From TrEMBL:
<dbReference type="Pfam" id="PF12833">
    <property type="entry name" value="HTH_18"/>
</dbReference>
<dbReference type="InterPro" id="IPR018060">
    <property type="entry name" value="HTH_AraC"/>
</dbReference>
<keyword id="KW-0238">DNA-binding</keyword>
<dbReference type="InterPro" id="IPR003313">
    <property type="entry name" value="AraC-bd"/>
</dbReference>
<dbReference type="InterPro" id="IPR037923">
    <property type="entry name" value="HTH-like"/>
</dbReference>
<dbReference type="Pfam" id="PF02311">
    <property type="entry name" value="AraC_binding"/>
</dbReference>
<keyword id="KW-0804">Transcription</keyword>
<dbReference type="InterPro" id="IPR009057">
    <property type="entry name" value="Homeodomain-like_sf"/>
</dbReference>
<feature type="domain" description="HTH araC/xylS-type">
    <location>
        <begin position="191"/>
        <end position="289"/>
    </location>
</feature>
<keyword id="KW-0805">Transcription regulation</keyword>
<protein>
    <submittedName>
        <fullName>Helix-turn-helix transcriptional regulator</fullName>
    </submittedName>
</protein>
<dbReference type="InterPro" id="IPR014710">
    <property type="entry name" value="RmlC-like_jellyroll"/>
</dbReference>
Length: 291
């Protein structure tokens, strides 16, 4: 079975420098000049991925949704998301890749990054436009991180501080400030639900099954999801199943029946109906469209 390539920080680092398993900060034009041949094809990362564009244009597709690239735009991606680039001419900016453990020895709160809406895995929330003073400050922070990364040894703690400042700045630009506007317990409950979906979406497809795992009522779970996301619990589960189905449909060697089996549907016809109801296309039509 063909799968999306999965890159880690070491196998995507500059060959002229010793690889670091936890952090990579680089000028975006240089990064692309080395990797564009493979990064324009859909792929996954095993790390957090942050990009700030300062010049150039093109498109960036994240989990089958395409965004235009413009100056001042910041992208935030979590491990496992699928994306690819298509640029028109030269682009400039900064890129930061960091591991899931990069902040864990630095912050007492191991789930600190969960407060940022742009790290939810929702591609719409992961694209933020920095304007005016925020754009200028964002560039300055990125440039300081680049300098810290070019030193030997790499000043990782300085990069951590600067990166946290950039994340807080982006949170301000997003206008959401989740941590300040929503009680922390609600945020943690939603995060727990999303983590459970990520681990169990192939086997569990009903809200009451997840509510039982969380020791809350299905009504409470549904109300919380609608309050924080505008979607029902069932819709969040469905969207994750559909996303995985789309990822698998890119692999042309897999038949619809094999994908249905992979996602634990009782048969291919039920999977086809489920997919068409959610997307308006049959699996075959979707596969043909993305070609």
């Amino acid at each position: 079975m063909t799968k999306f390539p999965v890159y880690n920080i070491c196998n995507i680092s500059a060959s002229s420098t010793p690889p670091d398993e936890d952090i990579l900060v680089e000028d975006f034009a240089q990064y692309i000049s080395r990797h564009y041949a493979k990064l324009n094809y859909p792929h996954r990362h095993a790390f957090y991925h942050v990009v700030l564009f300062t010049a150039g244009k093109g498109t960036h597709t994240i989990d089958f949704k395409t965004f235009p690239v413009v100056a001042g735009q910041a992208y935030f991606m979590i491990p496992g998301q699928v994306h690819g680039w298509q640029f028109e001419g030269k682009v400039e900016g900064y890129i930061i890749n960091f591991s899931e453990t990069f902040f864990k020895s630095f912050l007492l709160n191991s789930s600190y990054l969960d407060q940022f809406s742009f790290f939810s895995g929702n591609c719409d929330e992961g694209v933020i436009q920095l304007k005016g003073p925020l754009h200028k400050e964002g560039e300055l922070l990125m440039n300081e991180m680049l300098k810290a990364a070019e030193g030997r040894p790499v000043h990782e703690d300085l990069i951590r501080v600067l990166l946290l400042r950039f994340l807080i700045l982006a949170d301000e630009a997003s206008g959401k400030k989740v941590a300040n506007s929503i009680p922390n317990q609600k945020v943690l409950t939603l995060k727990t639900f999303r983590n459970l979906i990520e681990k169990n979406y192939r086997l569990l497809k009903l809200p009451n099954e997840y509510a039982a795992l969380m020791y809350i009522t299905p009504h409470h779970l549904n109300a919380l999801c609608q309050d924080l996301t505008g979607q029902t619990a069932g819709e969040l589960i469905r969207d994750r199943v559909i996303l995985e189905a789309k990822r698998l449909l890119v692999n042309e060697e897999m038949t619809a029946a094999e994908i249905a089996w992979n996602l634990n549907f009782k048969d291919a016809s039920y999977f086809n109906r489920f997919f068409k109801k959610a997307t308006g296309l049959t699996p075959f039509e979707f596969r043909k469209q993305i070609k």
